[in-house]
Write the structure tokens for this entry.
Amino acid sequence: MREYEVTIIIQPNLEEEARHELIERVTSWLTGGEDEADKPVVNLWGERRLAYPIQKHNTGYYVFYEAKLNPDGIKDIERNMLYNEDIIRFLFIRKEQ
């Protein structure tokens, strides 16, 4: 298990309830094990202006996670994020030891 920082950008026109459900779904993807200690830390940055338009959006809702993940499972999580139309961008960064 390694520590990662994961940032996602959600479409800004998504309803509050749908956004909350999406954040919970991504949190469940990032949960490394069944332990409560393995749950990722979620920081909601809110809606911010994008540096350049993405899919005709000028703003996006940013969510930042700090999670312990198995490196072998990252490809599956990335695939889930790619297939979700409400996530317009995501980024995984491995923390240094």
The two ends are 12 Å apart (CA to CA).
